[in-house]
Amino acid sequence: MLDPILDAMTWHVQYRDDAVHHIVHHPSPEQAIEAACRLIDDGCCVYGIGTGPLTDSIGRAEIDSIHALWARARYPLVAPGRISPGIPNHDCGNPANEQKVAAKDPRSLT
Questions:
Q1: Is the pTM of this model over 0.85?
Q2: Which of 12, 73, 89, 91 has the fewest CB atoms lying closer than 10 Å?
Q3: 3-state class of 84 per DSSP?
């Protein structure tokens, strides 16, 4: 007999934290997106969300768009053009760009 929990499609989130690549699995797309947005807020570089093969995933640009929507819903009183507490880590592969983003992060000013 098939176990629906074991046979359910899982969603993966691929991210980099301190130069180490990670993959975590979630049972639903909603949980995967929520986890990805929280990872971005924590300063991780999320570069893939999807199902099936790791090459079949949502890319960085789409992830940044999803995170922007999530951040607006989470921090609705932040004026357009201002940095919210959770800013996306754009262009994960470019260390110079990551330093610019970190410099704008209000959490780094303390």
A1: no
A2: 73
A3: coil
> For 38, phi and psi rounded to 5 degrees?
-65, -40
State how far the Cα of 57 lies from the Cα of 49, in Å rounded to an integer.
5
Q: Tell me the chain's radius of gyration from C-alpha atoms.
A: 15
Q: Which amino acid is at 103?
A: A
Q: What is the DSSP string of 8-51?
A: S--EEEEEEETTEEEEEEESSHHHHHHHHHHHHHTT-EEEEEES
CA 90 to chain centre: 10
pLDDT values of the chain reduced to their tens digit, one per residue, 110 residues: 444 554 568 899 999 998 899 999 999 999 999 999 999 999 999 999 998 777 778 888 899 899 988 888 887 665 555 555 545 444 565 554 444 444 444 443 33
Candidates 12, 17, 66; CA nearest to 37 is: 66
Domain regions of the chain by residue span: 4-109
User: Looking at the chain, how many residues does it have?
Assistant: 110
